[in-house]
Amino acid sequence: MASIDEKDEEILKELRKNGRATLTELGRKIGLSPASIKNRIEKLESLGAIKGYSAIVDPAFLNEFIQAIIEVELLVDNEAVDRMLYNISRLDNVIGVYRKTGEFQILIRANFKDVPQLKEFVKSLSVKYLGKNMKRAKVSVIMDTFKEGGVIMQERKTRRRRRR
């Protein structure tokens, strides 16, 4: 992996918080000229430190009211699993696919319009992969999101009781 300096790290941290920050805003926060920021961002892109740019979208605006985490326990871990993960990654409602340690080696984040669509997704995974690559799956529904993509989603105000 190519090395980056402290200024590059600062740029990455700022972009992670706000991918739409202007070169001028970044320069002001980091203490560099906009031209220098632009050059550094181009370098970071070419190194692969910046993988891409996207918006954090409220799934409700896409009629996706169910956000779920599907954890998969594998029977084996081989090239067929890599193909399975690639195929799952290509599905529109899938937000993230991760290989991890622990009892369940795969984590899938996905959004669905309703519970029947979630059930259909899990059923299709089972039909395609259960007994082949997949031993079992565990589904959890996300109840509330507080931070997503480095952005705090909603500020919670603590309620103070008034003394009477």
From TrEMBL:
One of its GO terms (cellular component) is cytosol. Signal peptide: none annotated. It comes from the Archaea. The keyword Zinc does not apply. Residues 4-65 form the HTH asnC-type domain. It holds the Pfam family AsnC_trans_reg. SUPFAM superfamilies: Dimeric alpha+beta barrel (SSF54909), Winged helix' DNA-binding domain (SSF46785). The keyword Hydrolase does not apply. This is HTH asnC-type domain-containing protein. It comes from Thermococcus barophilus. The lineage of its organism: Archaea, Methanobacteriati, Methanobacteriota, Thermococci, Thermococcales.
